[in-house]
Amino acid sequence: MKKYKLLLSLLIAAFQFQACMNSESGNEAMTKENDEYMNIHARACSFSEVDSAFKHIRLQLVTADTQELSIFEKIMATTGLPQNFKVYTADIPDALAIMQKDERLIICNKQMLKKMIDQDSTNWSVLFILTHTIGHHLANHLSDSTNLITAELEADRFAAGMLYKMGADSGQVLRALRSGIITNQQDTRNHPALSKRISAVSESWQNTAGIRYNTITPPSMDDSLQVNSFEEADLVYNTYVTGSSDALHGKTQGDIGQYFTVQKQIQGVIVSVIKETKSYDEISQHKNGTFIKVLVSITKGVPDYFVNNKKYTFSVAFEPRSGKASLNDFYAFFAPGRKIEFNVIDLFEGYDSGENFMTRVKTL
């Protein structure tokens, strides 16, 4: 009888072992225990865990909420590609890209996403980590044949290029790598040395900048404008028109004119337009006048004043004295995406209250 019991026990153990092996074979990446916890047995790409090409972990997953998903929507809008993954949060160091059968998943540290939501300014470190993780999915890095070192560098390069497009400078794009979460100075089994990653990111940022400003310029808008330029007669802020008259023509006579500086033939692309809420009495003697703020990305600047590749806000006061243009023409002209050339008068240069007013502008 003892022999039969021993044989039965061995058969049961063998059956359980085979069942366990089958659960980890094929494309099955996660097994769900209940509505909250999942066992993960999958090929994975982790940003900071340098020796974790294959995950055997149990996580409590929470579906990302609307605010958290909006971060990924912003990144994907920059790529121009549809989102091909689902997003969850869990108790992990940063971010993880994995596959569940044929479904792509990104799992993130919830507190890391909270930083993006709570902070007024952009958190470039978090954005880099998330974009890097997205890059693994877009480049199909989760296949068994992928070279892991190459995959990490490709994801880094992808993140650097995308962050450039989102506005990160050459220092901001490196913040995640220099934050201390990446410590390996030599290659590991699946992550390159920190110095290689920094070089790859810097090179990608520079290459993207070169493409953007040396070979590809934003196309002109084709919207059948009725008015494609505005002169001083319509754009000089009426309160200052007498005092600024000399400055506009290169003179500095008078008590007011000496505080004005004029910069000419600046070129850029309109990024955004804000309509001011000032009353007409405050901004113009004309009932049809208006006042706006225009954010412009400079493509041809003026040394020591307006630097190429940076954004500046300019004030524009519309006072239709010439009769050439209407208020509708004005609003149609100042639209995001339009390439323009313009002159600027700097009111009260050197003072915090100074403003840069456009005095002449045309389309390019």
Please give a structural write-up:
By secondary structure, this protein is of the alpha+beta class. It is built from ten helices and 13 strands. Helix 4 packs across helix 5 (148-166) and helix 5 packs across helix 6 (194-215). The protein starts with a helix and ends with a strand. The radius of gyration is 29 Å and the shape is elongated. Mean pLDDT is 76; it is low at 1-29, 241-257 and 349-353. The strands form two sheets. Strands 1, 2, 3, 4, 5, 6 and 7 form a seven-stranded mixed β-sheet that branches. It has a six-stranded antiparallel β-sheet with strand order 8-13-12-9-10-11. The chain has helices at 2-23, 66-79, 110-118, 124-138, 148-166, 194-215, 232-235, 241-248, 280-283, 327-333, and strands spanning 30-32, 37-46, 54-60, 62-63, 86-90, 95-100, 103-109, 229-230, 260-275, 290-300, 311-318, 339-347, 355-363. It folds into two domains: 24-215, no CATH class; 229-363, no CATH class.
Task: Furnish the topology, listing elements before pairings.
Layout (H helix, E strand, L loop, with lengths): L1 H22 L6 E3 L4 E10 L7 E7 L1 E2 L2 H14 L6 E5 L4 E6 L2 E7 H9 L5 H15 L9 H19 L27 H22 L13 E2 L1 H4 L5 H8 L11 E16 L4 H4 L6 E11 L10 E8 L8 H7 L5 E9 L7 E9 L1
Parallel strand pairs: 5-7
Antiparallel strand pairs: 1-2, 2-3, 2-6, 4-5, 6-7, 8-13, 9-10, 9-12, 10-11, 12-13
Helix pairs in contact: 4-5, 5-6
